[in-house]
């Protein structure tokens, strides 16, 4: 048992003792949700079943048939950072960043062949022999490469129906190639390079959308660290009783998501759930908590979730841009966006301070309110 695992259990002595035993047995097995499917289960273990009151409450939330904004970056890839493209991100008919907090990008410059290789590499990692995967299994947040199921397993009231391979990439501490699992090593390295460049481009556009200088957000280090999750959602025997990922907002400044064609991602818009459509070759982008805070609520970090499904496995690869993690860098509402009419709404904090709060609680919902003035 690693130190983080022991700390999780010690901090949650109030959990029902039987539930705690089930959580510990599941975690100690190191086989994840896929291990349960491989064992032939036909009913969900208790740790995955959502409380009845939660299911009833969710049924009262409507479902919207609307289009998530789609942004064509073909002009950007050709060197065009014109006002028309910037306005499309900022003032799309559905207000992509300010109202939705979600949009999709097409013609983003990442080859379709590489997107396919990342999807295939995610399948290959999670579908290899369980004993091979176990060498990467850990709950230690400091590890650069780790495999796990449910990052908030011991904090949350209900476990999610997915497994993850997490890869942390920072400007100051790059992962060595041989630390990455061999079955997905090559596409991960290539995709990380491409998605980092796309992230820098999007931060330039978002800077100008806020009325700032082109390099403002990149100069703040918003793109300096990337945290990849290679998600794997096996087919679920009772999808109506659980979730792929519970409703939440992202910790990041910005998230760029690659997903396969199975679907299940939904964003909360106008207090109703809207499906994020599956556009071949597209990537989904969403504003994270940190960007909402430094934009002083100009941009929106929207709640979203992933449904469990009898069909699968579904795979997805979010890349979270988490900014500079050194204690010296303080983040808060940007001074250029503060005035008498728009006073600062949040206190300053460092990324480690925000992360400590975020990862010590269930991931559901938003964690921004603790930093409000």
UniProtKB/TrEMBL annotation:
Keywords: Iron, Metal-binding, Oxidoreductase, Vitamin C. One of its GO terms (molecular function) is L-ascorbic acid binding. Residues 222-323 form the Fe2OG dioxygenase domain. Pfam families: 2OG-FeII_Oxy, DIOX_N. The keyword Mitochondrion does not apply. This is 1-aminocyclopropane-1-carboxylate oxidase homolog 1-like. Coiled coil: none annotated. Gene3D superfamilies: B-lactam Antibiotic, Isopenicillin N Synthase, Chain. PANTHER family: 1-AMINOCYCLOPROPANE-1-CARBOXYLATE OXIDASE HOMOLOG 1-LIKE, OXIDOREDUCTASE, 2OG-FE II OXYGENASE FAMILY PROTEIN. InterPro entries: DIOX_N (IPR026992), IPNS-like_FE2OG_OXY (IPR044861), IPNS-like_sf (IPR027443), Oxoglu/Fe-dep_dioxygenase_dom (IPR005123). GO terms for biological process: coumarin biosynthetic process; response to molecule of fungal origin. Belongs to the iron/ascorbate-dependent oxidoreductase family. The keyword Glycoprotein does not apply. The gene is LOC113735613.
């Amino acid at each position: 048992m690693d130190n983080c695992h022991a700390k999780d259990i010690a901090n949650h002595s109030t959990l029902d003792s039987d539930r705690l035993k089930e959580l510990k047995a599941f975690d100690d097995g190191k086989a994840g949700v896929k291990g349960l499917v491989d064992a032939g289960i036909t009913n969900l273990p208790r740790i995955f079943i959502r409380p009845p009151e939660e299911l009833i409450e969710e049924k009262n939330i409507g479902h919207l048939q609307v289009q998530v904004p789609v942004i064509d970056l073909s002009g950007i890839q050709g060197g065009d950072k014109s006002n028309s493209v910037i306005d499309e991100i900022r003032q799309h008919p559905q207000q992509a960043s300010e109202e939705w907090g979600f949009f999709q990008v097409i013609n983003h410059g990442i080859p379709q062949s590489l997107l396919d290789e990342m999807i295939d590499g995610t399948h290959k990692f999670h579908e290899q022999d369980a004993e091979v995967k176990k060498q990467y299994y850990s709950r230690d947040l400091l590890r650069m490469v780790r495999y796990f199921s449910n990052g908030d397993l011991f904090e949350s009231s209900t476990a999610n129906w997915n497994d993850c391979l997490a890869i942390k990439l920072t400007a100051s501490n790059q992962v060595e190639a041989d630390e990455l699992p061999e079955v997905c090593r090559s596409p991960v390295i290539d995709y990380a390079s491409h998605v980092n460049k796309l992230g820098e481009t999007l931060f330039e556009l978002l800077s100008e959308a806020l009325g700032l200088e082109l390099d403002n957000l990149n100069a703040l280090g918003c793109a300096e660290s990337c945290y990849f999750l290679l998600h794997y959602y096996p087919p679920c025997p009772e999808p109506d009783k659980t979730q792929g990922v519970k409703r939440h907002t992202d910790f990041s400044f910005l998230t760029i998501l690659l997903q396969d064609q199975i679907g299940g991602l939904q964003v909360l818009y106008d207090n109703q759930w809207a499906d994020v459509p599956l556009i071949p070759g597209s990537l989904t982008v969403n504003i994270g908590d940190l960007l909402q805070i430094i934009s002083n609520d100009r941009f929106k970090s929207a709640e979203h979730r992933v449904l469990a499904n009898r069909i699968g496995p579904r795979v997805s690869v979010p890349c979270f841009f988490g900014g500079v993690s050194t204690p010296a860098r303080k983040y808060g509402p940007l001074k250029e966006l503060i005035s008498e009419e728009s006073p600062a709404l949040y206190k300053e904090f460092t990324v480690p301070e925000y992360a400590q709060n975020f990862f010590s609680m269930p991931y559901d919902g938003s964690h921004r309110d603790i930093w409000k003035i």
